[in-house]
Amino acid sequence: MPRSQYHLTQSEENYIKAIFALSGSSDDSISTNLLAERMSTKASSVTDMLKKLAEKELLTYTKYQGCTLTETGRNVAISIVRKHRLWEVFLVDKLQFGWDEVHEIAEQLEHIQSAQLINRLEEFLGFPKVDPHGDPIPNREGKFENIPARSSLSSCEIGTKGIVMGVEDGSPEFLQYLNRIELKLGSEIEIADKLSFDGSLVVIIDGRTTQFSHLLAAKIFIQPTS
Amino acid sequence: MPRSQYHLTQSEENYIKAIFALSGSSDDSISTNLLAERMSTKASSVTDMLKKLAEKELLTYTKYQGCTLTETGRNVAISIVRKHRLWEVFLVDKLQFGWDEVHEIAEQLEHIQSAQLINRLEEFLGFPKVDPHGDPIPNREGKFENIPARSSLSSCEIGTKGIVMGVEDGSPEFLQYLNRIELKLGSEIEIADKLSFDGSLVVIIDGRTTQFSHLLAAKIFIQPTS
DNA sequence: GATAAAATTTAGACTTGTCTAAAAAATGTT
DNA sequence: AACATTTTTTAGACAAGTCTAAATTTTATC
Predict the structure, then answer these.
(1) Could you report the predicted ipTM of this complex, rounded to two decimals?
(2) 0.80 exceeded by the pTM?
């Protein structure tokens, strides 16, 4: 299905992307305040923008009830995610950036308008299926192909072994910490223990033992092998 | 010399770039109307923007007298030109775009903010010296290195032979016409005749004879070999 | 050198996206 | 169910960048 050819401002695109990210797989509506916090803006600004985006039929908006993306809105969001992730692959694979350095640049590049550009970039990169953080890249039709089952490390039992398939994108500090302990996509990981009093985990990464807080563990996704 | 780290809007960058392009090698001041025409906007809008850019010390502006870029302003302009041309090389060399297809996309990409990105891109491309239209690419210090002498075809005498070193960037129609007659950078070209009544030229391109209007010939630059 | 024409600036207005402060609706608590 | 709290919306304002129309300055012409 072709994506719609609306002209959206960067600001509009950022709202759509944020709503999509907050929605996840559920189709509950997103509240004004939640979105305001995500966008680092005020609720009143969000209300104004929601009215505009509803006018453009990218989402449905009911006063005091938050919003939900329409089919069109979701397609726009997926298109932006696709661009963001392909550019991240370009930056890491071709320009030798670290995975902790690419987010901000990709936030700019994701707004470049040219379907041809992004399709040729995808081909140039060899049709990658995931970005440098392990997040899946939707294809031209907006479908996420064969996503392998991933579990958050924090939801796994003691004794679980697995391969690191993904980490949360976003904060350079977090990714730099992973660099420091040499955790990468593909690393072998085992949960050696869980400390009940604070929920932190003792883990073994490629043979090296370290400790993760629950919060940190929640940002790491593995494919269990046992 | 490091380029300044101002935050400029896309609009401000576009004005700076246009003023730089209109200035050429001379340092005459650029008139409000000329700039308005170039930017496809109104003179009153230009006046407002010139005041703002003068405030930021990117140009000097005297009422009713037009403007001139400052050293800083010129550096900003050169940085934008550098980005534009490197992205054009990327699009043509790596993503297989035609030289007639890249201008518009590069107009967007040139506003991406990241010195590291553009320096790594330059390295990835093998430090190209010219863009796909033969225009020189300034280095990190903002210098245009060893520009070979180029003459506009329209300024050459009958009998001149040369190599096509550059063509004017901008209009896809013009570049598509050059594709049709198979004129490329590096083509051998000879001026067989000049028709005095309309100023048009009879030229031989890689052995094929064709005719150029004076206006068209002015947009083609050669390095004379005889 | 006066005057007409052209170029340029000013004044006031509009749009986009944001803000603060106040009003209105929804939610939670007893 | 009534009241308090939280969430959300409205109203009015502001900055950026643009516009039109009117005023001003420069330039060209007689």
Answers:
(1) 0.90
(2) yes
